């Protein structure tokens, strides 16, 4: 059975960033299940309509023939259909709604996901020039407007709260620390400590930022519920 019901925002972002976008599924349509419909009905309709539930071998064959492959994911009542390059009725049916993640990032839950060409690879030896990274890379970061809200919030309170309290709030921000997110949080911490330093206050330690992201099982809850129903 085709698994599409992701049970957490972290799971959806992880699935997109690690399992879908890196494989060329760059064209997407986002939709919302209407209040009067059951999400499972919409799942079945879209998966059947676009022939999404196929095997890996079938996907490989379609790729060889220049045809597009599709994936479908849903979190709550929000769904995404993602497609690769190639021919497929999906592009005709959804022509007015299809977006390219390389130019129009996927915005969901305060995250922004895009695909861009990499900058420079890590140097192997210090005296050698950095080598350009020609591969397309998935970039997960806090969406611009959400980051501005966080920045305004923390700068307003940077000199009103203890370093411990600010550190606790930073640690518990609901964003997994993908590399671009880490850079954003480090930049936020730098601004906070600049204000605290000017006021002669103790700085917030860098150790109060999460640097390692949590690996989640995107479909874990759904599988548990299915097992419980079978056991009953």
Question: What is the averaged pLDDT score?
Answer: 92
What pattern of helices and strands is seen along the backbone?
EHEHHEEHEEEEHHHH
Number of continuous helical runs:
8
Helix content: 25-40%
Compute the CA-based radius of gyration.
Answer: 21 Å
Number of domains: 2
Say how many strands there are.
Answer: 8
Q: What share of residues are in beta strands?
A: 15-25%
Largest sheet: number of strands, sense, barrel closure: 5 strands, mixed
Shape: globular
Structural class: alpha+beta
State the low-pLDDT regions, or none. Answer: 222-232
Strand order of the largest sheet: 1-3-4-2-5
Kindly describe this structure.
The structure is a single chain. The chain has two domains: 5-108, no CATH class; 143-208, no CATH class. The two termini are 20 Å apart. It has helices at residues 9-20, 39-49, 56-64, 89-93, 144-157, 163-171, 179-198, 220-231, and strands spanning 5-6, 27-32, 70-75, 78-83, 99-100, 106-108, 111-117, 136-142. α5 (144-157) runs parallel beside α7. It contains eight helices and eight strands, in the order βαβααββαββββαααα. It has a five-stranded mixed sheet with strand order 1-3-4-2-5. Helices cover 40% and strands 17% of the residues. By secondary structure, it is of the alpha+beta class.
């Amino acid at each position: 059975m085709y698994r599409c019901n992701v049970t957490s925002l972290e799971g959806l972002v992880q699935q997109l960033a690690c399992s879908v976008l890196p494989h060329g599924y760059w064209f997407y349509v986002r939709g919302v299940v209407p209040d009067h419909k059951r999400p499972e009905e919409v799942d079945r309709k879209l998966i059947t309509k676009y022939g999404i539930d196929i095997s890996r071998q079938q996907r490989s064959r379609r790729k060889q023939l220049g045809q597009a492959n599709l994936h479908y994911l849903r979190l709550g009542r929000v769904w995404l259909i993602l497609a690769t390059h190639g021919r497929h009725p999906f592009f005709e049916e959804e022509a007015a709604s299809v977006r390219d993640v390389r130019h129009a990032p996927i915005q969901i839950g305060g995250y922004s996901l895009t695909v861009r060409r990499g900058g420079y690879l890590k140097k192997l030896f210090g005296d050698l020039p950095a080598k350009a990274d020609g591969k397309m890379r998935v970039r997960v970061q806090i969406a611009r407007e959400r980051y501005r809200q966080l920045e305004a919030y923390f700068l307003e309170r940077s000199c009103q709260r203890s370093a411990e309290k600010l550190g606790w709030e930073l640690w518990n921000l609901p964003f997994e620390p993908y590399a671009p997110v880490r850079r954003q949080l480090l930049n936020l911490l730098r601004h906070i400590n600049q204000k605290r330093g000017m006021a002669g206050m103790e700085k917030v330690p860098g150790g109060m930022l999460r640097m390692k992201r949590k690996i989640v099982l995107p479909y874990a809850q759904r599988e548990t519920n299915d097992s419980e129903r079978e056991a009953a």
